[in-house]
Amino acid sequence: MSIPLLFGLLALTLGVVGDETPEAQSPQSACASLQSLLGATIVQTPAAGSSFQTIVGTPLNLANNELTPSCVVIPQNTSHVSTAMKAIYKTKSRYAVLAGGHSAMKGWNAVRDGVLIYFRDMKAVSYDSRKDTITMQPGVRWGEAVNTLAPLGVAPVGGRAAHVGSGFLLGGGISFLSPSLGYGADLYKELDVVLVDGSVVTATANNKYSDLFRALKGGANRFGIVTRYELYPFHSGKQSDKTWFGGTITYPGSFVEDVLRATARYTKNVDDPNATIFVTLEHIVNAPANKIDTVVQANIFYHGKSLPPKIFGDFLSIPASNKSLSALSYADIVANTFPANDDHGSTYLYGASTRRGGDEKAFVDALNFNLNFTESLKRDLAWTALTFTPIPDSQIKAGRARGGNAIDAPLTGGYAVMQIMQTLPVGVVDVPPAVANGKKKLLSQIKPVPGLPLFINECDALQNVFATYGGYDFLKKTYKKYDPTRFNIGHTDGPIGL
Ligand SMILES: Cc1cc2nc3c(=O)[nH]c(=O)nc-3n(C[C@H](O)[C@H](O)[C@H](O)COP(=O)(O)OP(=O)(O)OC[C@H]3O[C@@H](n4cnc5c(N)ncnc54)[C@H](O)[C@@H]3O)c2cc1C
């Protein structure tokens, strides 16, 4: 008997869909039901699925490649997602949703012994000039969206890395365009959402699902599965319109403190929506030399003809080992900043913190804590990194002007979010206890500033990011309304705190 036929019979026997099934069943029963309903091309199993292994290997983080689902659903439309969620809900299966695969948190985009919904075949992106909106399916990555739309002179307010996917939006999403337009999610116009029980709703800022609409601006994977994003665009101009200036400056490790002090000052002083930066420092374990090498880079861009010295003077005057600065189109910036998706094969760990603008000491302390941490665990680590992104008041005001988001950050005159990252040596999946403990200590040393929201796209899974949001109470209330049985929290990994 063929596997699909076997599954089909199983599904009929179990009566999985359209029947009352109070007890949890095996994930195989959801897969069996789904295969009979959607067919073996859309629902693939380890035994019979030409794409199955490739899909399991899609998440960037090796720790997630190790989680093998019972089956993968590759929907082609919203109705397929709805069918999948109905079966998952009925059978009380574990599940996960995979878009661009860039979440570092274990289990947030992969599932062992459950159903994985992967948007590989829902990648359409288009622009309606009459409505002036972009419509995107969730499988598209930012580089693809930007390249498709550049000939039309528009771009989504999307990721800074071309290969990151649309899950970016559900965590808020910090774009190069954020200082002028807000978080990526602030640009939502309309969302199609499959709720946890499989029902489908369209949420907007003004209809009866306006609470859901707002919750999906920062609520991550907890509130439903978005199958269509309609977004207000950035009028970027075409690929040939080099209306930006900037690029990457690399500094020798000896100037890392100067760069961080400059970043602290920039965070406080710059509220020009045309300016956008992020600064990364890496501590790389140089095993043969038994030492840690420090590399620091400032990625600085201005929407204008040149880099105004008043804004970027500090970064331009620190002695650099390399400067790659030129006139650029918006599409160039997205294509060049993280050019390749070639970092598979390693386990990444993230953590989040915040820094008040102007607090140079706190920026430099973070550097020293990270260096000590890396030094003490150098046998177990390949490299570590701290990335600082200023959140100017202009970004928060732009979001508020579009109805606000769940993050609901305060106006402080500028603060920075920090990503704290560790990378294990290639091929190592399990986090050594010394690293796990050391990381806990590191996060307690690089303390977040009370009252400033952490950034969920860059957090540790044990950090209660939602509790740092201005909209925390709103999020809890909205979650209760849309998932009263707490199915999502019980059956998929994701942020804690609801
Ligand atoms: C190299 C790199 C660069 C990055 N740069 C940035 C940056 O500039 N700005 C920024 O904000 N973040 C950035 N990130 C973080 C990134 O945005 C988040 O990890 C984001 O969640 C990735 O989305 P994804 O679709 O690629 O990943 P996935 O792991 O596929 O999805 C992320 C999460 O969202 C859920 N999800 C995805 N799609 C849906 C959906 N349609 N409905 C419901 N749930 C869904 C997934 O289940 C998962 O929990 C970066 C990450 C990396 C690795």
Automatic annotation (TrEMBL):
Keyword terms of this UniProt record: FAD, Flavoprotein, Oxidoreductase, Signal
Superkingdom, taxonomy of origin: Eukaryota
InterPro entries: FAD-bd_PCMH, FAD-bd_PCMH-like_sf, FAD-bd_PCMH_sub2, FAD-linked_Oxidoreductase, Oxid_FAD_bind_N
GO MF entries: FAD binding; oxidoreductase activity
Pfam family, one: FAD_binding_4
Signal peptide from the UniProt entry: 1-18
Domain FAD-binding PCMH-type: 65-236
PANTHER family, A to Z: BINDING OXIDOREDUCTASE, PUTATIVE (AFU_ORTHOLOGUE AFUA_1G17690)-RELATED, FAD-BINDING PCMH-TYPE DOMAIN-CONTAINING PROTEIN
UniProt similarity note: Belongs to the oxygen-dependent FAD-linked oxidoreductase family.
Name the record gives this protein: FAD-binding PCMH-type domain-containing protein
Source taxonomy: Eukaryota, Fungi, Dikarya, Basidiomycota, Agaricomycotina
